[in-house]
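Example record

One chain of 601 residues, shown exactly as stored in the release files.
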Amino acid sequence: MALNSEIERVTQRIIDRSAARRASYMEGIQAQIDKGPKRGHLSCSGQAHAYAGAGPDQHALATKDAPNIGIVTTFNDMLSAHQPFERFPDLIKAAARAEGATAQVAGGVPAMCDGVTQGETGMELSLFSRDVIALASGVALSHNTFDAALYLGVCDKIVPGLVIAAATFGHVPGIFMPAGPMTSGLPNDEKAKVRQKFAAGEVGRDALMQAEMEAYHGPGTCTFYGTANSNQMLMEFMGLHLPGASFVNPNTPLRDALTMEGARRATQITALGNAFTPVAEVLDEKAFVNGIVGLMATGGSTNLLIHLPAMARAAGIELTMQDFADISAVTPLMARVYPNGLADVNHFHAAGGLGYLIGDLLDEGMLHPDTRTVAGGGLEAYTQEPKVDGDRVKYEPGPRKTLNDKIVRPYADPFQKTGGLSQLVGNLGHAVMKVSAVDPARHVIEAKARVFTDQASVKEAFKAGAFTEDTVVVVRFQGPKANGMPELHGLTPTLAVLQDRGLKVALVTDGRMSGASGKVPAAIHVSPEAVDGGPIAKVQDGDLVRVDATNGTIEVLTEGFDARTPATMDLSANARGLGRELFEMFRQNVGLATEGAGVVV
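Predicted structure tokens for this chain:
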């Protein structure tokens, strides 16, 4: 089928807008390709340093002209999503040796968990950790001794940071390797109900702790469809994963086989072979459009609205919020995965998952079929389903019909006609709202404002019984320059309780909300942010605010609003404690949220 006309139009708009930046980027990439890796041209001393820790691979590195694969890993054993990576280097090295190649751990990069730091000071470092990950990956690859790279990462800022690095080192072929989701535990909706009961004072902390431990119970990614699992979807739609790799559970024969297959494939796509596939040629404008289509079709995390523009900038491509809104308007919501449904990602995968969605979207002309991928060929390969064949992977045709239409539906019969993303523009600035999980009756909220400068104050007001009428809760000075733009996901149970009491509530913030923000209407990423004197800094208690996801507007209706002087705030406390001192330079130099809130791009 011919490519959808709107997808084609948006793609061409991105290509035209990015022409100069992309040309300059590709010129630099080609210069690096022409030079090639320097392993064989290092001094004897330099090579000896590089090979001394390689154990059984030391001789091969020094004497053979074979691919050497650099492993960039986010392994740590305090985060369930990244703990399985402990075993990956040994699997990768064994697979590489069997191909006559070698592999080395190039470097470890940090990985923090927003689930641990929710509502805590550490969350103020979270967004900036993406830039740290990109920088650390750059250090790992700086030795210039690798013919390809394997990027081991899963969660919120980790994959975007790795992609920024992979794009920067775009002359190096690279494959992204996930660890997979943990097996299903306590259903996410039941966990959410316990959280709401705790917020309302109906159950104690012991009940809350039991529910959380039953939900998050073993190695692997959290099973709800938040940012971590949206990242995995993105890597598959953009052709950086092996087909079908995203949602295979850790420590299973298929997961191990996919890991080893990724290592083998990495040896095949280097400049030493006939299938050279540098990352720069995978990450083109079409790939990013495919990724955005996937985000909308699956109801993925709003955090990707920040990460994708930053990732694209690293590849010389410029994305705008209008691109997201226009693609959302023509992409139906084809999946119901928590928080916009009861299923978790394991159920989604069993119902046909990404392979089914990619196939159906290709059939309907909603994806570019001719993108380069690490698997070779176009995106059609990603409709295939991996199976274990001994210790190898074999691919079979994936399902072309949904296996559970309560979780996954075809393009022709979707859950919603659009992807559920609204760009909001008005005298409060620019914002976005994800409405795929929000009741249509709550897509428009008009109510008096209550203004806060942190989420703790909102919770205190709730406990004091201060919310007795329809309210637009404004939480400002939460942008990247103010305090690193922490997620305000901790407000979701509180605001959900108010909704259940019959009140109409909405959140307006220059901060972020998690991919699991769910059923509460939230106008987020308001830009310009309050610390820059943005209009959100002019809002006062009692102002009449209208948040309209239907018409795409966000406005203060109170007369005289535009003429006010923006409020200011002493933010000096944000610069001290728990490492925030180290990130002062990041806060001073970070870009706008609408442009990716980047520091290094």
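Notes: The two ends are 37 Å apart (CA to CA).
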